[in-house]
User: What shape does this take?
Amino acid sequence: ICYSFCTLLWLRTPSPSKMQHDDESEESYHNTAMNHPVWSKKELKRYRNMNEMYVDDIHIGFFYKPRMVLLLALTMVGLLWMALGDDPSDQSLPATQYSVAKGGAACVVVFLIFSSAALPNGPFVRPHPAVWRCVLGVSILYWLLLVFLLFQTRSSVRRAIVWLNGAEIDYMAPEDSPEYANDCSFTAANLWSRVDVFVIAHSLGWVAKALMLRSVWLCWLISIGWEVTEVLFSGVLPNFSECWWDQVLFDVLLCNALGIYIGSWLSKYLECREYRWESITDVPSLTGKVKRALLQFTPSEWTQVQWDPFSSSRRTACTIFLCFMVLLTDLSTFFLKHILMLPTKHRINVFRLVLWASFGMPALRQLYIYMTDSCVKRLGTQSWVACGVLITELLICIKFGRGFFDSSQMFSVLVLWSCVTSLIVLVGMALAEMAKVSRWRAVILRKRNSSLAGMQPATNPDTKKQN
Assistant: This one.
């Protein structure tokens, strides 16, 4: 340990000649990167803003300086402490299970440390780029776990979940049972019985989607597509069997509409807000410093989003792709829950939703930049990983669903769902474009009328009498 810290101190004090050499090498690397044979200077800059966003306003330099040697030394010390700190025989679990669990946890920690140091920043810098590097690392670990589960059997995965849970899982909760939609009488008692924690969760989910998409028509398009998905898959998944008033009143008019309205209002508020950040060292009071530290967890800016699906072929394809990806993400949630026989309130479902919300934000941002910026020629790292995660989840549903569902019924439902959803998406995009064109036409006519009214000459009474 002493040798590591002495080496660290020696590396922290470079000689002037070495500093000059480093500056020259950095400048040569920068010039080489700018003269890339495939990418132009503009394309390289745009891609870095999407995949490797730099922090411009650094107020406390200590948290942004690279300390790779110190990080490596602390990691090795932590691994030594974890390996020699306790005896597996003193634990309640068997020695083999405890060693495997501890070794797996150590692998996850080491990979997250590597992610925070080596992976790209992504499109966000708040609260710190290392946070979004760790989010990318967690998504990669989740993808590797899904690839591992893809080569297992459904029974073995089920036994592993029961072993991690510590007891047998009760799958037939009231909200998961097929008898959930038997009583569809439109009474006050029946309506009140549907009000539970899932109503709040449903609304908060749409608030998050509205903040991420920042488009009312796109949110409503996905909302209608999801309600159609529930109707089409109600014969396959019992959880989709709902009463008509439950789907119309609670899902569409209450949860979806309220979540979209609140999320759109927050998005408009954040767009109109002025972002002017002050260094925490310049704040005089302690209360002000605490407030500035908490504001570090808020966005540094808020970008206005314009999807415009018919302005280019890339925008059209990416908008359709985005709608299908959002619907498939929600659909795989219910399929995995049903195939693996997990109750809705199980922590695995909650962990998966939190995980998708975490890496869905940078993935959606990178997809939007790739869709709207013609200088960006490749998809961002987080978007690429998110697509891989979703496709692997669908492959798991297909593999584990064989023998669990009727193949002919599932194939016909999937074909019908693809056709109906494509039609809804295309019609919704066309209606949104027509509404936009009509708004622009009204604005142009208003400006033309005002300009013509200003160009009319003033009439005096004498000229009018002569005429």
